[in-house]
Amino acid sequence: MDKKFPFPTSTVNQLINTLENIPPEGITSDELCEKMKCTKKDLSKVIPFLRYLNLIDIKEGKIILTEIGKEFLDAPEKDRPKIFRKALLNSVFKDLLKLLDGKEFTLSELAHFFKNKLKSKGNLAVLKGYAVKLQTWLDYAGIATKKRIGREVKRFFSLKEKEEEVPKEEKVEAKEKFDNKFFYELGKLIGYIYAKSEKEPFLLSQIDKLAELSKEIDKEGIIAELLNVHKELFKELREPRIFIADIQLLEKKIQSSLK
């Protein structure tokens, strides 16, 4: 493996959201920041990975869609994972996927795999953050299969293509299940975090509550994993904004479930 392996700094939803904001005629980074109401620093966590996946290119100062990027956006939702999988398997990540093929890891084991097999010098908390984001990619592409063994959650990685039906009932259930109290509690927790409370123990307790609440809407538990990983990073960095991307991901998940 290349020692300069590009560890993912964005979830699959962040990749897709950015891709969906790129018009056919292309767009400058300044225009994209304005359109998405984000900073260039936020964009820098996503754009390089869209390029690694060959979903976009940059020409004459503009971010443009590649052919596979256009194919992805033009495809029905149910077909997008296969196109994303194709992009992954033809990208700089293909060697990593070959190493993962046939193996199963918990999140911690995957972080140790990064450290030992890929010779990464990052600390395990940071590597766990990369691992969670990579898992969202591989879950979406159908390369990772989540399974629970006792209290442990493992993912089995396989490059063998499989056919699977995605259940359609969840969206209907979501409309019935979430009442005003759920959204009140959710909004209150998010408000605490956006307020950047200086009382660290209090803030961390709100993150724990938000992680538990997120499992009601995110059955895979990806958002809870992200929040917990970033909670460990927060203890080192003391920067509450580290949670904002996770909150935005949760908000988008809620909006999607209620359509």
List the helices and strands and how they pair.
Layout: H1 12-20, H2 29-36, H3 40-44, H4 47-52, E1 56-59, E2 62-65, H5 67-74, H6 80-89, H7 94-100, E3 104-105, H8 107-117, H9 124-141, E4 144-149, E5 152-157, H10 170-177, H11 180-194, H12 200-214, H13 222-237, H14 244-257
Antiparallel strand pairs: 1-2, 3-5, 4-5
Helix pairs in contact: 5-6, 8-9, 9-13, 11-12, 12-13
What keyword list fits this structure?
3-stranded antiparallel β-sheet, 14 helices, mainly alpha, 259 residues, 58% helix, 5 strands, 3 domains, two-stranded antiparallel ribbon
Unreliable residue stretches: 166-176
Mean pLDDT: 81
N-to-C series of helices and strands: HHHHEEHHHEHHEEHHHHH
Distance between the termini: 42 Å
Report helical residue fraction: 55-70%
* Strand fraction: 5-15%
Coarse shape: globular
Rg for CA atoms: 18 Å
Task: Tell me the major beta sheet.
Answer: 3 strands, antiparallel
Q: What class would the helix/strand composition place it in?
A: mainly alpha
* Multimerization status: single chain
List the domain count as a whole number: 3
The number of helical runs is: 14
Secondary structure tally: strands: 5
